[in-house]
Amino acid sequence: MAYMAEQITDIADMPRGGPDASWLDRLLETDCPEYLDRDDVDDDVKRGIVAALDRIGTLFGEHDRNAELVLREVADIADPAILELGAGHGALSRKVLEQHPTAHLTVSDLDPESVAAMAASDLGDNSRATVAVIDATAIDAADGSFDLAVFALSFHHLSPAQAARVMAEGTRVADKLLVIDLPRPPSTVHLLRLAVIAPFALWWPFAHDGLISSLRSYSPSALRALADHAGVDVAIGAGLLDPQVVVARRRS
């Protein structure tokens, strides 16, 4: 597979496969938003997608695995203050609260509807949880307010410029930023995955957003470029099918 020269002069122009992405990988991306990010999509459709994400995450143990990743990063802190960005349904924060008896969570999302739903749930009644509308690209919090910020399974929604900004903001308000997101497989594997999803995307909103998510996912190369632009150091763990796990820290 031929690779393109690294000629990214503006982070906004960076392909989702990174500066060294092949020509095929550059074709396997889109600027089309998911239903969740569109203003012209009925709220009932959006709520259905969020509910499906929650159910599937529960069914396949995704919420538990992500909670383990969060707890691993704060294992040496007695009463950790954790900020979840882009929480959506709040299942991750709910799991962390269940599994860590002294953790304090700020559970946030940019979407007021999602925040209202979380506030009306058990999260809103939990004395160790604060539910709030927060823009992850411009977090209204002082430097070092949290021990950990986490952005799980939503990072691909961001444009490259927004993603770099979230890395900068997340590592400003917290000692570390943990990003858990979809993997971007090699192009041939990616094509096969898209072919499997595509027929369902025509009639099932959840599959539609899954298809778009796959096309908008970032490669490790892209994540390193975003981190460099944001002025942070990252450690990246990624498998072919497993979620990518990124731990970011601001450079000293």
UniProtKB/TrEMBL annotation:
Entry keyword annotation includes Transferase: yes
The Methyltransferase domain, residue ranges: 82-173
Molecular function in Gene Ontology: methyltransferase activity
Biological processes per GO annotation: methylation
SUPFAM superfamilies associated with the record: S-adenosyl-L-methionine-dependent methyltransferases
Methyltransferase listed as a keyword: yes
Domain of life: Bacteria
Keyword annotations: Methyltransferase, Transferase
Pfam families: Methyltransf_25 (PF13649)
Record's protein name: Class I SAM-dependent methyltransferase
Organism: Mycobacterium pinniadriaticum
